[in-house]
Amino acid sequence: MRLFDTHCHFERAHADEISSIVERARKVGVEKILAVGGSVALNEAALVARDKVGLLAAVGYDRDQINEKLPKIGEEKLSAWGEIGLDYYYSPDTKDKQKELFAMGLEEAKARDLPVVVHTRMADEDTLSILKEIPSRGIIHCFTGSVGFSKKLLDLGFYISYSGIVTFRAADNVRESASVVPDDRILIETDSPFLAPVPMRGKVNEPSFIEHTCRFLAELRGKTAEDFAELTFTNAEKVLCSK
Questions:
Q1: Integer Cα distance of 98 and 62 in angstroms
Q2: What one-character DSSP code corresponds to residue 32?
Q3: Each residue's pLDDT expressed in tens, for the chain with a length of 243 residues
Q4: pTM of the entire predicted model
Q5: Are 225 and 210 in contact (CB under 8 A)?
Q6: Do 187 and 8 touch, CB atoms closer than 8 A?
Q7: Number of Cβ within a 10 Å radius of residue 138
Q8: 138, β-bridge pairs
Q9: Which of 46, 67, 98, 153 stands 20 to 30 A from 40 (CA)?
Q10: Rounded distance between C-alpha atoms, residue 243 and residue 239, angstroms
């Protein structure tokens, strides 16, 4: 079984520490990992993961960076731009600034001909509006929205990625959407070091735990874990490893 973790954060730019995490992932069949940025520190760690450990990398500035001084990111060898997006759950008072930064990120990705990694929470209409205004391609990561929202994102050409949240007891809405996304548009991720799946709840999440999310979703969708791992691997390669 080969697995592709399409969203992993490294909080420290420490090559030996990243290598140890990746080694544990390799042992359970994780062949590819996208190290994702979102802040100055996370971007730095993603680039170390790429340069020192050989992972794929995405960099950008997320919605929490609206009041930060954001240095320009060089012409790096990147697989995606992100994470970027909107989160009105924690910060509804900063909607306007979030939308401005999100649009800037989409334009940057467009200029670089890169797919985007989008975070959206409690911001369905604004997310859709901006993605229609600035046509883009890529991944809606850690999806927790409704079936209706997922269908609208699929209509825009996006892939939809599910994290360990899908295994949580109270996540019926996530399981509902995860059961209907087409085979050729679904992805899996850890969003580590956050959101460890059942049965690893309470632990610091890492890419090796993606096996549990894969097996859970495979059962939910009536597939073997091996077949589901392979189709999500193929999907991830299409969006992240090809122009």
A1: 8
A2: E
A3: 999 999 999 999 999 999 999 999 999 999 999 999 999 999 999 999 999 999 999 999 999 999 898 999 987 799 999 999 999 998 889 999 999 999 999 999 999 999 999 999 999 999 999 999 999 999 999 999 999 999 999 999 999 999 999 999 999 999 999 999 999 999 999 999 999 999 999 999 999 999 999 999 999 999 999 999 999 999 999 999 976
A4: 0.97
A5: no
A6: no
A7: 23
A8: 116
A9: 153
A10: 8
CA distance 29 to 116: 25
Domain annotation for the chain: domains and CATH numbers:
3-240 (3.20.20.140)
Under a CB-based contact definition with an 8 Å cutoff, are residues 89 and 68 in contact? no
Please list, residue by residue across 18-51, b when 16 or more beta carbons sit within 10 angstroms of its beta carbon and e when fewer do.
Answer: beebbeebeeebbebbbbbbbbbebbebbbbbbe
222: left (phi over 0), alpha (psi -120 to 50) or beta: left
Distance of CA 101 to the CA centre of its chain: 18
Query: CA-CA distance, 16 to 177, in Å (whole number)?
Result: 38
Residue 29 is classified by DSSP as: T
Structure tokens at 52: 């020192």
How many residues does the structure list for the chain?
A: 243
**H-only helix segments in the chain:** 15-26, 40-53, 95-112, 124-133, 147-155, 172-178, 210-220, 225-240
Question: What are residue 127's phi and psi, to 5 degrees?
Answer: -60, -50
Per-residue b or e along 188-203, where b marks 16 or more CB atoms closer than 10 Å to that residue's CB: bbbbbbebbbeebeee
For residue 90, CA distances in Å to 5, 52, 119 come to: 26, 34, 13
